[in-house]
Design goal:
single chain; two-stranded antiparallel ribbon
Length: about 325
């Protein structure tokens, strides 16, 4: 599998990583055994990057990864990434805590759950709008100096915020939703990453399952609190988007590959700075993701994908009003 550098001067990582939010049951129940099977399949496929967060299942995702690493008796075969910065206070209604005490305290809990002494990549999950990014990056820089983390990442921030942060300390990666159905990163974020030498780590590269051969069903949507409140999968938009995305499934059949493979390969072909971290609970689906990471589209197939799914085809906003609390809008 192709390797790309994680930020300027960073370690090489596989272009495909494991997005471990699915381990926490966000998109449906996931067992420890299923999650461990995905990690086994990842190693077999040459996948070296695993991404999680403290709030995925309130620590469950990290605990599952930690139990997998414990089975390997101290060996850590993955470049691990986790996050902090989201903290919902029921009394004040605040959704973020970027304070040094909270960030380091959550990091220590994450390290304990993962069973490691150091995390390679530590993201600020959400930037508190009342805290300058320079101040938070300073907090993270001190964690680098202390040897607790290797590199700094940011999540769901604007290109201008990324540039400001980079003036304080090198930033290795920025996470953003990026897929054939979510192309806003092309309006500044992709370009900023290329200019600054930062990895763009694309989550939901198969559109939360829509860009696959087994897209979400109404029953599956109803079982997920996140999905059933998401505009792209509710209010009639699920049916509209299933119809609108069918040409990609047809093209995959013509090309002799899975739809997920086309979606993954398309994202990776957009920029040499891009990595993808799709999540899944199913090893067969994971094999399709690996297929995409190893697929060379070619100019003609890439152009045909974009002809069938032209920019702006997807019905509905990518987040609901509540889900939009935190991510920065920049276009």
């Amino acid at each position: 599998m192709e390797l790309r550098t994680l930020g300027k001067g960073g370690p090489p990582v596989s272009v495909l990583g494991v997005g471990a939010m699915s381990f926490a049951g966000i998109y449906g129940h996931a067992t420890v055994e299923e999650s461990h099977a995905i990690l086994d399949a990842a190693l077999d496929a040459g996948v070296t990057h695993v991404d999680t967060a403290n709030v995925y299942g309130m620590g469950r995702s990290e605990e599952i990864i930690g139990s997998y690493l414990a089975r390997r008796k101290g060996e850590t075969p993955f470049v691990l990434a986790t996050k902090a910065g989201i903290s919902r206070d029921p009394e004040t209604g605040r959704n973020f805590d970027n304070s040094p005490a909270h960030v380091e305290g959550e990091l220590d809990k994450s390290l304990a759950r993962l069973g490691v002494e150091r995390i390679e990549l530590f993201y600020l999950h959400r930037l508190d709008p009342d805290v300058p990014v320079e101040e938070v990056v300073g907090t993270y820089a001190r964690l680098v100096e202390a040897g607790k983390i290797g590199r700094i990442g940011l999540s769901e921030v604007a290109p201008t915020t990324l540039a400001r942060a980079s003036e304080i300390h090198p930033v290795a990666a920025v996470q953003s939703e990026y897929s054939l159905q979510t192309r806003s990163p092309e309006l500044g974020l992709v370009q900023a990453c290329e200019r600054l030498g930062i990895s763009l780590v694309a989550f939901s590269p198969v559109g939360r399952g829509l860009l696959t051969d087994a897209p979400p069903t109404p029953e599956g949507i109803e079982a997920s609190a996140f999905m059933k409140s998401n505009p792209r999968f509710s209010g009639g938009n699920l049916e509209r988007n299933l119809a609108a995305s069918q040409p990609l499934r047809d093209l995959a059949g013509e090309a002799g590959c899975s739809t997920a493979a086309l979606a993954i390969a398309w994202v990776l072909a957009q920029s040499p700075s891009t990595l993808v971290i799709p999540g899944t609970r199913n090893c067969d689906h994971f094999a399709e993701l690996v297929e995409g990471a190893n697929l060379d589209l070619g100019a003609d197939l890439k152009a045909e994908i974009e002809r069938r799914l032209p920019i702006g085809w997807c019905h509905g906003d990518r987040y609901s009003t509540r889900q939009w609390i935190g991510p920065q809008k920049y276009c």
